TrEMBL record:
Belongs to the G-protein coupled receptor 1 family. The gene is LOC109064299. It comes from Cyprinus carpio (Common carp). PANTHER family: HISTAMINE RECEPTOR-RELATED G-PROTEIN COUPLED RECEPTOR, TRACE AMINE ASSOCIATED RECEPTOR 19P-RELATED. Residues 44-298 form the G-protein coupled receptors family 1 profile domain. This is Trace amine-associated receptor 13c-like. Keywords: Cell membrane, Disulfide bond, G-protein coupled receptor, Glycoprotein, Membrane, Receptor, Transducer, Transmembrane, Transmembrane helix.
């Protein structure tokens, strides 16, 4: 289930956009805040994209998935967040029917890719910890690139089909409104594919990941007691994998906390219930908050991102062979 879903046919009635009900100063502050939030989302995720794309040391399977998530968050910041926040401010769609269709489709795409990418991150960390030998032999950056491209292509075909089958490319939008029509069967399928299945997979895999990480930590401590000199390389490798799992676990937990309120509201609160519409609006804000938080998480917890930011802001990325610089 995506944003602004309506499980019924659209019946256009006479509708006029409500006038501004707040003072001019508050109105200006709201628009400045909208611009600031959108700009922060775009800039933060653009920095992540530049970092992972430019520095060859960062071309790892886990970072390629982070790159995919940053691209979907960038798409949200550019083409979804500004329109949604303006819609919340105005209580009216002012961008016309064509942009409404584009807005809904891009929202579908960014949401699907984000959820499935986080599921892929959970799978990646589970394989890295549970089968490290198999992971190092079989899971290469090329393999992850192919999986990531398939994820985007699948989401593109799936969302186009979902909108086309429900007539959202041909329906005439009511003036001042931007909704899409989805029947009960499509809504149930969408709920399974975009929410229940990937989120269940994420929770199950990360539960196993933390159990495995704890088991590894106990085993390593025992090994260090009996053999303080041997297998140092393996200990460092295991520690690195566990640290990556914990950091990406923070990313996943924040993602679920931002995602769940909207989907809970979608299931519990009928779209026609105007009295609780403000609750849905708050849930939508939490939904978009994740696209802003992700780059902040990288900046706080990932040393490679901190180093790459320093190189970007000092313009050293324009130096010859800067892609080979050490950022780890």
């Amino acid at each position: 289930m995506h944003l602004s879903a309506v499980n019924q046919s659209i019946v256009c009635q006479e509708y006029l956009c409500p006038g501004r009900s707040v003072s001019l100063s508050v109105y200006v502050v709201l628009y400045v805040a909208t611009a600031a939030v959108s700009l922060l989302t775009v800039c933060g995720n653009l920095l992540v994209i530049i970092s992972v794309s430019h520095f060859k040391q960062l071309h790892t399977p886990a970072n390629i998935l982070i790159l995919s998530l940053a691209v979907s968050d960038l798409l949200t910041g550019v083409a979804v967040m500004p329109f949604q926040l303006i819609l919340l401010i105005e209580s009216c769609w002012t961008s016309g029917p064509v942009m409404c269709v584009v807005f809904n489709f891009v929202t579908f795409q960014a949401t699907s890719v984000s959820v499935h990418t986080v599921a892929l991150i959970a799978i990646d960390r589970f394989l890295a910890l549970s089968s490290p030998f198999l992971y190092s032999q079989k899971i290469s950056p090329t393999v992850i690139c192919i999986v990531t491209l398939f994820n985007w292509l699948f989401s593109l075909i799936y969302n186009f089909t979902l909108m086309f089958v429900n007539g959202n490319f041909t329906n005439v939008m009511c003036p001042g409104k931007c909704v899409y029509v989805i029947d009960g069967v499509s809504s149930f399928i969408d709920l399974l594919i975009v929410f229940l299945m990937p989120c269940t997979l994420i929770i199950i895999l990360y539960t196993h990941v933390f159990v495995i990480a704890k088991r590894h930590a106990t085993a390593i401590r025992a090994l260090q007691v009996h053999n303080s000199t041997g297998s140092s390389k393996n200990r460092v490798s295991d520690k690195s994998e566990r640290k990556a799992a914990i950091l990406l676990g923070i990313l996943v937990i924040v993602f679920l906390l931002c995602l769940l309120p909207y989907y809970i509201c979608s299931l519990v609160i009928p779209y026609s219930n105007a009295d609780l519409f403000y609750v849905r609006n708050v849930a939508v804000i939490f939904f978009f908050l994740n696209s802003i938080i992700n780059p902040i998480i990288y900046a706080l917890f990932y040393p490679w991102f901190q180093k790459s930011l320093k190189l970007i802001f000092t313009f050293k990325v324009f130096n010859k062979d800067s892609s080979l610089m050490n950022v780890l």
